[in-house]
Amino acid sequence: MATINLLVNGRVIAAESGSSVAAAMLSSGITTFRTSVSGEPRAPLCGMGICFECRVTIEGQDHARSCQITVQDGMVITT
Amino acid sequence: MIGGGATAAGMGHLAVMDDSDPQFALTSYSQALWSELAPQLPPDAEYLPCGSLWLAADDEEMAEVYRKFAFYQERNIAVEVLDAKQLAEAEPNLRRGLAGALRMPSDSVIYAPCAARWLLEGIPVFLGHQVSEFTDEGVEFANGHRFAAGSVILATGTAITRALPWVPVQPRKGHLLITDRYPGFLHHQLIELGYLKSAHSVANDSVAFNAQPRATGQILIGSSRQFGTEDSTVEQDILSRMLARAIEYMPGLPTLSAIRAWTGFRAATPDKLPLIGLCPGHSNVYLATGHEGLGISTSLATGRLIADHILGRLSAIPREPYLPGRSFDGHD
């Protein structure tokens, strides 16, 4: 598998092409994807686009479900 | 449940309106009362002094902006005209090519059910009792219990006709949709000037663009108006038309996630003014209904006018235009 780079919160992480953004982030050790309204850390739960726990900002798009989006080289992600 | 009807279903705007002099008097008086109250409101009332923008799509609607501007300026209401460039700067997510807007900086939005609950704090409230009869001496509950009262105020929205079939209030259904949290997407309450055509239209179904930023960062999107139905089901065709209209104004809306859509029923009257004051044929029974889309806006003034009547005080504005016994001749 080819390796590509993502920019997550300003930090470059390596990801395997073809993986989901959620998988790539978890593989690099990121465990907080967003913070709930009441201030709790949140991370992927269902991995199939239903629970909405894995939402991050991808290329400026808020509330994007990271488990449903495939990584692209140079993708900018904010948790 | 407190505020469980149209109070919870509506958008919760606190707006000044100029359809008629009595409507202006009531909305501007009530908005001043809300402004006085604002510093005391609890956080869950989500008071947001965002101001409104009445959007003009073309020169014809821009002429209406200038007419409204003159109306409000004459009456000492803060108001401002935005040209196309200023409008694009104020709301970058609006489509380009709009002619301009009228900015009403003193308009605001509120989460009405929590505000209603707060207003009733410390007042004994008996929930879950159906009233089977009311007289000038008080009310009787369906379980036979009598409740003596110096005054009876019927503030039941569209349900008023179940008790008093002659009251000229009709349910006017509306749809709303709310998005996830996108802070900064929208700054003002936005209303297309065509909204007035929709609100006044006698056609059965109409939609108009109306969007609000909420204190949570969510966007509340309306609006639709339908007579002749009491079915609260969300109607996909009406919702689609409403959203298509919204997308014409804000092309970026389809990239946002919607969380929920729902409906509610406005209490509409033939002359677009509420029914506030003594119920004809009674000396201690008052009506407070028929506010259509302005119930939250004009709630505080409504309460004040009825309190003034009960206490024999003069009111800050004339009470006659809203009296339930007025003539509705000449209105459909």
Class per helix and strand makeup of chain A? mainly beta
- Helix-strand topology string of chain B: HEHEHEHEEHEEEEHEEHEEHEEEH
Q: Tell me the radius of gyration of chain A.
A: 12 Å
Shape descriptor of chain B: globular
The fraction of residues assigned to DSSP E strands of chain A is: 35-45%
Structure write-up:
The complex is a heterodimer of chains A (about 80) and B (about 325). Chain A has about 80 residues and is mostly beta strands. Chain A is built from one helix and seven strands; from the N terminus they run E-E-H-E-E-E-E-E. Chain A has one helix spanning about 20-25, and strands at about 5-10, 10-15, 35, 40, 55-60, 60-65, 75-79. The radius of gyration of chain A is 12 Å and the shape is globular. Chain A starts with a strand and ends with a strand. The mean pLDDT of chain A is about 95. Chain B has helices spanning about 5-10, 20-35, 60-75, 85-90, 110-120, 160-165, 195-200, 235-250, 300-310; strands at about 15, 50-55, 80-85, 100-105, 110, 130-135, 140, 145-150, 150-155, 170-180, 190, 205-215, 220-225, 260-270, 275-280, 285-290. The longest helix of chain B is centred in the N-terminal third of the chain and has 17 residues, at about 20-35. The model of chain B has no long low-confidence stretch (mean pLDDT about 95).
Secondary structure layout plus pairing:
The complex is a heterodimer of chains A (79) and B (332).
Chain A: E1 3-8, E2 11-16, H1 21-27, E3 34-35, E4 41-42, E5 55-58, E6 61-65, E7 75-78
Chain B: H1 6-9, E1 13-14, H2 21-37, E2 52-56, H3 59-74, E3 80-83, H4 84-90, E4 100-104, E5 108-109, H5 112-119, E6 131-135, E7 138-141, E8 146-148, E9 152-154, H6 160-163, E10 170-181, E11 189-192, H7 194-200, E12 205-213, E13 218-226, H8 236-249, E14 258-268, E15 275-278, E16 285-289, H9 299-311
Helix pairs in contact in B: 2-9
